[in-house]
């Protein structure tokens, strides 16, 4: 329970914790941020790591001069693209066994199935759209690697989505994160980013549930 409280506190006060991290680790902060984004996008078992909110907070810290904006954009874009690439190949190698197995200690089968339905609905655009949807973002490249998309096509969508995601949130934090009104209500802004990010997944889940109920009633 204490660990959960620490995670919640870290997410809701990202600006404060990131500032402390930069002061403590200096240039190593870039490596830490790189690894967080790499793991959040590249490992199916770590979908709860902060993504959108972390990027926004990092941009806000960069606007104070604590981090270099150019290096931040380059390194985090590389982390996002490499993360999805890693996830794709993990899916390519072990994905079929995950889908055919009944249970798994490492993978949430419901998340996989939901992402698969999302993929069927939006096609290749899923890789770009999913960048802005937590949970789906982590599972989309994994599902693509199972066989839904060739690597060449995936890489194109991966690069476009990665650049758009990183630049939107980092530059958003850089230009508005330290406006007095935003800074005074930074926790509320982080909460708003989280809610807006997961809203499409919630809508898709409700839609799928209604569709399933409709099918069960007619059968």
Q: Can you walk me through this structure?
A:
This protein is mainly alpha-helical and 219 residues long. It is built from eleven helices and no strands. Helix 3 packs parallel to helix 5. The longest helix has 33 residues.
Largest sheet: none
Radius of gyration: 18 Å
**How far from one another are the termini?**
44 Å
Helix content: over 70%
- Label the structural class: mainly alpha
Residues in β-strands, percent: under 5%
Q: H/E series, N to C?
A: HHHHHHHHHHH
Which descriptor suits the 3D outline?
Answer: globular
**Number of DSSP helices?**
11
Low-confidence stretches: none
Count every beta strand, where a strand is a DSSP E run of 2 or more residues: 0
Average pLDDT level: 78
Helices and strands, with pairings:
Blueprint (H helix, E strand, L loop, with lengths): L1 H11 L1 H12 L2 H15 L9 H12 L5 H32 L8 H14 L3 H4 L6 H13 L2 H26 L3 H5 L1 H33 L1
Core attributes:
single chain, 219 residues, mainly alpha, 11 helices, 81% helix, globular
Brief sketch in words of this structure:
This protein has 11 helices and no strands. It has helices spanning 2-12, 14-25, 28-42, 52-63, 69-100, 109-122, 126-129, 136-148, 151-176, 180-184, 186-218.
